[in-house]
Amino acid sequence: MVGTTFQFTRRDVLIALLIIVFAFGYRLLIITDRYHNDSIAFTPPAGSDQSVYYDSIQGVHEGTFPPSTFFFQPGMSYLLIAVSSLMRTDNAGALRVFLAAMASINCGVLMAVARLLFGRRDVSVLAAILLALYPVGAFFDTDFVIVSQAVILVTLLLFGVLWLWRFPQNWTGAVLAGLSIGSLALMRRELIALAPIVALWLLWQRRNYRTVMQVIAAGIFAALVILPIGLHNRAGGADYLITPVSNAEIYRGNNREARGDYRSTQATATSSADYLYNLWQDILLSPRRFIELELHKIGMYLSPDEPGNNLSYVESGKAISPVLQINPLDFRLLVILFLFGLFVLWRQDKASFALMLLIAVVMMGTTLLIWVEGRIRTPVIVALIPVAAYTLVTLWNAVVATIRRQMTGRLARPLLIPIPFIALIVVVAQWAYAALPNPVTVAALPADVQPSSALYDGALKLVGWKVEEQYSRAGIIAPYNAYVVSVYWQLQKPVTADYQFSLAYYVDGQSLVAFDHPVGGVAYPELTTSQWQVGPIYVEHLALTWKKFDGPVNISGDLLLVVYPEGRSDRPFHAEGLPDSPLALHIAQPAIIWGNGNFDTLANNPEQKTAAFGDKLLLRNWSLPSAGTVGQPINVTLGWQTTEQPIERSYSIGVYAFDANGQFVAQSDSPPHDGRLLTSSLPLNYKLEDTHAITLDKAGTFTIKIGIYDNLTNDRLVVHDSSDNLASIGTVTVN
């Protein structure tokens, strides 16, 4: 145990009040600077998180709040509504001042946290001052993005837990911890991951029945906070408790193109269905790239940079506020001091060491789970700052003792041990942030890739391509599902030019959807061809999707790849090395198709026995006229259903007529829908009707048989109990 004094005196209260006043004045200066230099951003921009929360006030007046179900974290909206009612104004500036005051008071709460943690006034005072001065936290304390509220709630949670630790007879800490956890669930749901961590730590420290009951009580109070929102959502028909948990956030920060921040990518834009499945497939595409991305994100997390979203500390804070510009504190400095403090605590107070390390690691993990952003990362300062303050006090005392010759070199030496390790962590983290991930390259073309010899501009060679069917089958573009094509490029000679490509899907000569981008610029790092080396094969994963459920559906089109000079799509290169040197390389023939299909006109006929064609297609029903006229088309409608086996090849469906002597006399064959829909575009377990017109030139009674054959090999699919792999569906009499 580091200290022994956990009582708060009038002197402590006075010091806390002075720090609170100082913190409030600092934040007022920031508000003033923002108002005078960035008045547009000072008003919450339309469509932003800030706007959603702020507009809730007007929604109450108009009767539109709360919505029937919450699609956003509702805690901030209710807080702003309460503050607006209390102040009798919805003026954005006045609300910012109130929130800044709340954040300033939290400096006093953190002072109490540090006192309970370490039992030392000097450490607790310094911790409060650091929180008051930390520029990023102070900036977010002046806005509506729930960063400040998350910091306050984590501080209150920590205060409640430490109160239970130091004063187990007092149950107030359980109430405070429970209310904080419940409020965190409404403000920043990912931070409720702290609840089991601090509960287990407290149980580990106390290990008695009372502590178990206090943890249960905290859980009950947390549930009481969450319950009204859960009941409201349930009444509105929602199947979630607070707000829908979107795996899209996880995918955005970790996909095959991500750079670890909020930036949108083509992978994000084309993935609207099973995000976690797509993420796993992205990882399998290049496990090395994923590992390097996560290392890059760790480096970004530990860096002094503050990546932004629709609210940037750098652009809306530091760039316009002198009091932020002159402040030397940054996140990396806090991390360095925190790491040093952990080393000292490990030697002196393992309980405090474990608690602060666990909180920091869990909060880091919740950030890395999605993407690194200043406002997402900032609440972890509640764990960093007290330990950083402890470090500074420890170092100061060591310096003073050395000057007074009260500390020998032997006693001071342990304080030097962590320095090289911390330096190594900082250097490696900075390297990972700056140098990773590397571009995805391979030394040789994988065996399952379609080889190509297309050469563009005498320099850029497309050595191969592959439709990644783990996302979508080569023949199917399902709405809102990613259709991914991996392309393998190789420079034949150094170039100073940057090339661009267009991957476009055409139906009947019309481009329906296209992805145009610089070659090499799809995934982070964006390394274009002028920066490439000769020799390595660079791999890019190009994606398309169709984001609606109408249009030219159930028609097999053409997926084409075109390469052209940067900014000159009107001057595409010929693909030299291919027959006829085409301007467009044909990749696949997919169709926009989805669902299970249906039989529009055919009714179920129990007398018609299902015929299986190989393991690919089932003939379920059909419609065959009993009579026809010589020279006039006879329409035969067939009801097909695919099986669990994907159809990877193009087949034609044949309708054949045989006379009474068994002689073949007429036929009509084509892929489904008169050749407009290839069988390779049919989903699994899909029903479709296909009509063929067959014309007979003489009178008589004819047997109609059905067969399916491969368009390349002409081999028929096997029909059981049939010597010619044809299935008879009945007879027609022609007069």
Describe the structure.
The chain is an alpha+beta fold and 735 residues long. The protein has three domains: 10-241 and 322-409, no CATH class; 441-592, Immunoglobulin-like (Sandwich), CATH 2.60.40; 611-734, Immunoglobulins (Immunoglobulin-like). 44% of the residues lie in helices and 18% in strands. A five-stranded antiparallel sheet has the order 1-8-5-3-2. Strand 12 (611-613) and strand 13 (617-623) form a beta hairpin. The radius of gyration is 34 Å and the shape is elongated. The termini are far apart. The mean pLDDT is 94.
At a glance:
This protein is of the alpha+beta class.
Keywords for this structure?
Immunoglobulin-like, 3 domains, 5-stranded antiparallel beta sheet, 735 residues, alpha+beta, 23 helices
Please list the strands of the largest sheet in the order they lie side by side. 1-8-5-3-2
Tell me the strand percentage band.
Answer: 15-25%
Helical content class:
40-55%
Structural class by SSE content: alpha+beta
Distance between the termini: 106 Å
Quickly count the domains.
Answer: 3
Largest β sheet strand count, sense and barrel closure: 5 strands, antiparallel
Number of helices: 23
Radius of gyration: 34 Å
**How many beta strands in the DSSP annotation?**
20
Q: Taking all residues together, what is the mean pLDDT?
A: 94
Give the overall shape, derived from the CA principal axes: elongated
Catalogue the unreliable spans: none
